[in-house]
Amino acid sequence: MRINKKYKFQYIAIAAILLSVASCKTSKVAEKTANTNVPEQYTTAQDTVNSGKISWKDYFKDSHLQSLIETALKNNQELNITMQEIEISKNEIKARKGEYLPFVGVKAGAAVDKVARYTNIGAMEATTEIKPGKEMPEPLQDYGIGLYANWEIDIWKKLRNAKKAAVNRYLSSVEGKNFMVTNLISEISNSYYELLALDSQLQIVNQNIEIQSNALEVVKLQKEAARVTELAVKKFEAEVLKTKSLQFEIEQKIVETENKINFLVGRFPQHIERNTTAFNDLLPNVVHAGIPSQLLKNRPDIRQAEFELAASKLDVKSARARFYPTIGITAGIGYQAFNPGYLFNPESLLYSLAGDLMAPLINRNAIKASYNTANAKQVQAVINYEETILKGYIEVANQVSKISNLEKSYNLRSKQVEALTTSVSISNELFRSARADYMEVLLTQRDALESKFDLVETKMQQLNAMVNIYRALGGGWE
């Protein structure tokens, strides 16, 4: 019984529909939408001016610091590794794009074949009557050359969504590099200001050693005059030795901080050129935090999380499409003959064209697992995006508050240093006139030294806060 050609196509269409229906049932997983709502402002004062949009060359005006940052952006090893990650992501786009385009290749081959006499084919050839000169050559040679192609028609956009996901991951890697640039600039700047603070502390220590040494000489003279005992001399001497040991501790910290900067700029240890201006005379920049919604565009880590979220959503679509039927087309054209002389004869031409429809029907657990994994990763990406936004807002809010409080603290510590510096002179005068005990002199000198150290530390914190809020606002990468 012959089937009418019209009904044959109908049967094929019905079979395709049944395959589609059977394969399109997917697990329902609730999609989680990212919450990007942020407070309208950081403090009671709202200002749309944002210091994070300022170029790092304009934000950090110290020429030595600018030179260090510029060198680091060229030589930092970790940053250069990240640049290669971007290249890897870029190549992934090309690979994904190639998957939904037709694959076309060229094929050439040669073979020889001798059939055994006592086999079914050998027996048939031996018993078949063939006219002389028309028999098949033995051994049989085979030569062929041609083109072949295969193409999966991406009707469900499985491959296109995979390519778009690769594009978003490439953009995410670019933002990751930008975030690394921001962090690199802030790390070098903080280390540079720490180095200036250590220089200032070393200078204070040296000045204090001179003051204490002078006081020690006075105590020795008073001991000779029997006005004080050997105990006072030893106390003053111990204080001088303590301060001198502190000098070497600071020098070691200077070496380590210099080498930390050298590592960040990608070079072996060497002296770091730096500003010789009095550290306490450095003034932090006036910072404008802008409004919180600007973080969504300014901070590279937030943008990175956003692109990762977009990629994960496309992964879900691509994974869902694996439940649907796939349509493939294969084709080939070329020449084939048992004699090279006949290879390009028109009668040696051959071609083929075929299409197939395939759909998962039974044992789809692997596909379901991949789909559920893609959904879980998408939820994970949503949570990570929200967490990154929250983290960015809190960092800025903390630094805004810190800048304000450090300014007040610095003003009070400045007055404390001024008072204690005056008290050192007073205590020395009183001690010379025997109106103050030597312990009062020692304690006053110690308090003055500590207060000067605290003042330098507060100044460094002010400068670090200026750097950290610039990083928190997403500055430096543009």
Strand % is 5-15%
Uncertain segments are none
Instruction: Report the CATH topology name of one domain.
Output: Outer membrane efflux proteins (OEP)
Class from helix and strand fractions: alpha+beta
* Major sheet strand order: 1-2-3-4
Largest sheet: 4 strands, antiparallel
Indicate the CATH architecture of one domain: Up-down Bundle
Q: Mean pLDDT, nearest integer? A: 88
Count every beta strand, where a strand is a DSSP E run of 2 or more residues. Answer: 4
| Global Rg | 40 Å
Question: What's the helix count?
Answer: 11
Shape estimate: elongated
N- to C-terminal separation?
75 Å
H/E element order: HHHHEHEHHHHEEHH
For the record, the CATH class of one domain is Mainly Alpha
Protein described:
- It is a lipid-anchor.
- With 478 residues, this protein is α+β, with helices and mostly antiparallel strands.
- The protein has a domain at 31-94 and 154-229 and 258-320 and 362-472: Outer membrane efflux proteins (OEP) (Up-down Bundle), CATH 1.20.1600.
- Helix content is 62%, strand content 10%.
- It is built from eleven helices and four strands, in the order ααααβαβααααββαα.
- α3 (63-75) packs across α6 and α10 (365-432) runs antiparallel to α11 (438-472).
